[in-house]
Amino acid sequence: MTHFGKALLAVFVFALLGLTSFVAGGQDAANVDFKGGKNTWAGSKVGDWVEYKLQLGPSVRFEVTAIAENGDITFQHTIKNAEGESVSDNSRTRAPDKAPVLNRVPDNLNAAWTTTEYEIGGKKISCDAASWSQEEAKGSVWFSKEVPCGGMVKAITDDKDTVWLLAYSKGGKVFRVAEKTPEPKPEPKPEPKPEPKPEPKPEPKPEPTPEPKPEPKPETILGPEPARDYGDPITMQLPESVRKAMKDQGVAITRMRVYFDEEDKDGGVVLEYEGMRTEVPIIYAAFKGEDCDKELSYKDWLARDGRFVDLAVDIRTRPKVLKGMKVQIVHSHLQGEVETELSRFEVTVPEPGDPWDSLRVRGARPGINRYSLVVTYTNKAGEETTQTGFSHWVVVQSPPMFEFLNSVSAKATRTQAGSNTALAADVRMNGSFILHHGIDPKDCTLRITRKGSREMNLAELPSEVRRVVGKEEIPPGWQEVAKVKFSDGKINGQDVVMVEDSFVRVLFDHSFAATAAVLPVKDEWEYHFELLHKDSASPLATWTVKVDLSIAKPADVDKAKLKVTATGLERPLEVAFLKK
Questions:
Q1: CA-based diameter of the chain, in Å?
Q2: Beta bridge pairs of residue 327
Q3: pLDDT tens digit string along 252-310?
Q4: How far is CA 297 from the centre of its chain?
Q5: For residues 44 and 42, what is the distance between their CA atoms, to the nearest angstrom?
Q6: C-alpha span between 167 and 50 (Å, rounded)
Q7: How is 533-571 classified by DSSP, letter by letter?
Q8: Could you tell me which residues come within 8 angstroms of residue 387 by beta carbon, excluding any fewer than 6 positions away?
Q9: Residue 296: CB partners within 8 Å, gap ≥ 6?
């Protein structure tokens, strides 16, 4: 095995939040074959929903909102953090065979299928459960035909639940995992107390000798609490389409202001911009840029109650009074080039001659926020007419990551092989985070670099083996291991970056294998993980993992430890070589 051999292997562990498997061929729930890779999306109806809890704290919900004639399903996908705050809420439309299923069975492993039950909503639902093992890791995933929106019920990694079903609604009936509540205890009745008698003071007893505490067992998993945010705050660049719209809009605003400032004109210049035309009635609806927020620092945004922005509008019409006039501000948010409407706010129309009030609009998100004016009135024919006014953009600065968690796990074994001892170690690097609301994952790349050395005593090896190992020289300095686009996420067919909406999980593995015949041995590596973006020359965020192993002689194997340090860990993870 080469010294790079297993180091580039990505270990498959289920992604906790929609590390989505696009399984083929949804069908009616009664006929779903989970072993064949099917799911329950095609049998789901409008109003059906599922809600899952994740080991790291967040929760995720899918709800069917519409079904097209061709069978395509529109669903609302909501992610909430551990505090219950919504951090992502998007509508998606997919064919049933392309809709997300939170977990899947690895294609390259022979999974064993069994039947089990899951208790929810006062009943037990039948589940098909697949279990497998890969190297030292174990995994399983449960599915049920009773559960809509994919059918996934629970996922387990190394005997720990990583994703589990909290609730689901099917056909208007809701089933929810019951929360355990303590049984009420009866109030104790007061009993008559006898008069206290003086008790003799006991003879002082000698202090017992404290028993020696057992040696602590080596830990195999270590991870910090999720960081609320991670990385230096960044300011999103305006997309080219927004820059052009702002430039064109500036010209139009100037021309329409000139028109309204000429009081004696009943007609006016002909001007068109995004559906507006200077015909009677004429509407000028714009924001007063000098009185509006344009860019907010992350610190200021956090300090604002309700995450508000301050806006000021200027709306003029000719004639000056329009029948049934109403004004709304439409708040939308950009993620890359994709714009999503978030909310609408009613604006109070002042009495004729009174000025428009300044506004405080809540709910701004990190990244690029667009506020558009919409004016509605009743025309001469009695029809309600809507006209879109100009827009204003507010950029909110933010760190590139939220809920960042960088955890590591490690296993080390020693196996007696005749007179020799085989050593094996595996370090799993597990990073997860919610991406900055304004960043499109398709614009991101993960870059993995490392530097280090692996030194062995080859003198005792046969010459033919020594020649092969000797050819593998490790270049000095930082070396690029891989660049992985978030849209692909794979290295050599293995999942390394898994993305569902804005939730990202990064999984990577470093392995070591040797025998006591090559001692002394050193294995020292430092890995850098860099979040790259197409519009940034430098990484948006970087985190590291260091691996350190040193064994001088065979007698040291019993007490040798693999040491791992990582960004965010308060103390190193140290793992002893356990006898296998």
A1: 109
A2: 347, 375
A3: 887 777 777 665 454 444 455 555 554 557 788 999 999 999 999 999 999 999 899 99
A4: 23
A5: 6
A6: 6
A7: ETT-SS-SEEEEEEEEEEE-SGGGGGG-EEEEEETT-SS
A8: 275, 276, 283, 285, 374, 375, 376
A9: 304, 309, 364, 394, 395, 396, 397
Note whether 51 and 58 are within 8 A (CB): no
Contacts for 71 with CB less than 8 Å, ≥ 6 apart: 42, 95, 96
* Distance of alpha carbon 490 from the chain centroid: 18
Sign of the torsion formed by the C-alpha atoms of 181, 186, 187 and 188: negative
Asked whether the beta carbons of 167 and 120 are under 8 A apart, the reply is yes
Q: Are strands 384-396 and 367-378 parallel, antiparallel or unpaired?
A: antiparallel
Task: Say which range, 55-59, 256-260, 302-306, 556-560, has the weakest mean pLDDT.
Answer: 256-260
How do beta strands 401-417 and 578-579 pair? parallel
3 Cβ neighbours under 8 A, 6+ residues apart: 454, 469, 472, 474
- What is the Cα–Cα distance from 2 to 21, expressed in whole angstroms? 32
Q: Can you give the C-alpha Rg of the chain in angstroms?
A: 32
Which of 106-110, 231-235, 263-267 reaches the highest mean pLDDT? 231-235
Q: How many alpha carbons lie under 13 Å from residue 519 in its C-beta half-sphere?
A: 17
Q: In whole angstroms, give the CA distance from residue 105 to residue 114.
A: 13
Provide DSSP, 216-274: PPPPSEE-PPPEEEES--B-PPPPHHHHHHHHHHHHHHHHHHHHHH-TT-SS----EET
Count, residues in the chain: 580
Q: What are phi and psi of 334, to 5 degrees?
A: -105, 135
d(CA 58, CA 80): 5
Tell me the two tokens of residue 520.
């002394």
Q: Encoding tokens for residue 262?
A: 């000429």
Q: What pLDDT was estimated at residue 179?
A: 61
- pLDDT of 459-516, one tens digit each? 766 665 555 555 556 778 899 999 999 999 999 888 999 998 789 999 999 999 888 8
Residue owning tokens 């080039």: 337
pLDDT of residue 456: 83
C-beta of residue 389 within 8 angstroms of C-beta of residue 398: no
